[in-house]
Amino acid sequence: MSEQQYNYGMVGLGTMGCNLVLNMSDKGFSVAGYDKDPKKVETLNGLDVHDNIEAYNDITAFVQALQTPRTILLLVPAGPIVDAVINELKPLLQAEDIIIDCGNSHFTDTQTRIDALAKEGLHFMGLGVSGGETGARFGPSIMPGGDLKAYNRISAMLDAVAAKVNGEPCTAYMGKGASGHYVKMVHNGIEYALMQLLAETYHILKVHGGLSNEELHTTFESWNKGRLQSFLVEITAAVFTQPDEDGKGMLIDFIADTAHQKGTGAWMSQDAMRIQSPIPAIDAAVTQRILSSLKQQRVVAARFFNKENVVEEAPNKETLILDVEAALYTSFIITYAQGLAMLQQASSTYKYETDIAVVASIWRGGCIIRAALLKEITEAFRKDDKLANLMLAEEFSEQVKTGSIALRRVLQKGLQYAIPLPGFSACLNYYDSYFSEWLPANLIQAQRDFFGAHTYERTDKEGTFHTNWNQTIY
Known about the structure:
474 residues, seven-stranded mixed beta sheet, 11 strands, 19 helices, Single alpha-helices involved in coiled-coils or other helix-helix interfaces, Rossmann fold, 9% strand, N-(1-d-carboxylethyl)-l-norvaline Dehydrogenase, domain 2, 3 domains, alpha/beta
């Protein structure tokens, strides 16, 4: 097959890269792969699959095997390795060739690469992929952004390999510049928050509700058949029935309570501060992962906690489960609202021209945050493309208002029994703040002007003002 001119090239033949190659091959596209690791090259070449795949460990031979103008996908670790691969490829490429970064690169790095390669006549695209190893093999959600001309050259392939919902591919053009990687970052930030909310749900049901692993499984499984139907709820239900391979019981009870992160959630929090978009649920999720890593400190600190001040009452399990379900559903809505509002703000700030309804629609299948809820979210933004916040949509405003009552009851239980629920709390505080006509920021303006002459605005006339405050305290 070495004389064949392949439709696409793939650099990086790890699990994700290899699976995406196989997915493309299944859909009739010929693919040349490249990896510096001879074992990965050998593994792909040794698979009993279609005859439209060949792997190389010589980058020149790999590039020469591709049809021109070339389209090369990268699935390598984000950061300097991406730049190293680009620099290795550049001398072998020609004008109009496309390089597509399918990893989790920071959007600012992607924009820098787009601008630099454009000067050399090359197209560079950032493409978010969600769905893990299984998604890559059988259909992920794909978020491409960048040059529209380049996108149009690969759109048919992306449509073919992406997950499908009601026959519609879970991929679409996300917008200009680094929008593809920005949308993926927002996806991952929402994922952080949803996972934190599910962990808090587990916490209060286990510690206060006293639910066993079997009861937890049954509860989450039943929720997954209703309005909370989603991939994350589905796998949460499954977790509680996974036996420990050492035969000690259920695996969940032997997993350390320290969560890790790769950084995309923190990136979202950082950029939210930069563009002035509030995302407290995502911020709380990032913070809790960091707090969970302080295991040794927490073990020591726990000895100082006076549990005698916490008086437990026997819970009504059925009532608690109903309240927690409503609180979780409401918080899911509020989390999506925060993430999509930030994406709207970013699109305006960075000139991406991202269509929020399109984003929601491609998240309905294939990706980690896929959920039945996204059908309604898509419809809400299709109905009103100027919708400032999801919580204002008629599909959700009454649901959030009603659900906030149960959310308050769940938070009261958390406060009463010293069960930390920062994700739930962040969602309710965001809701209460957003729907408050008045907030006490006037005091903050006064304080800033008092100690720093930063000025303030008034409610009764236009302009900015400064007062010589009574500073006798100095």
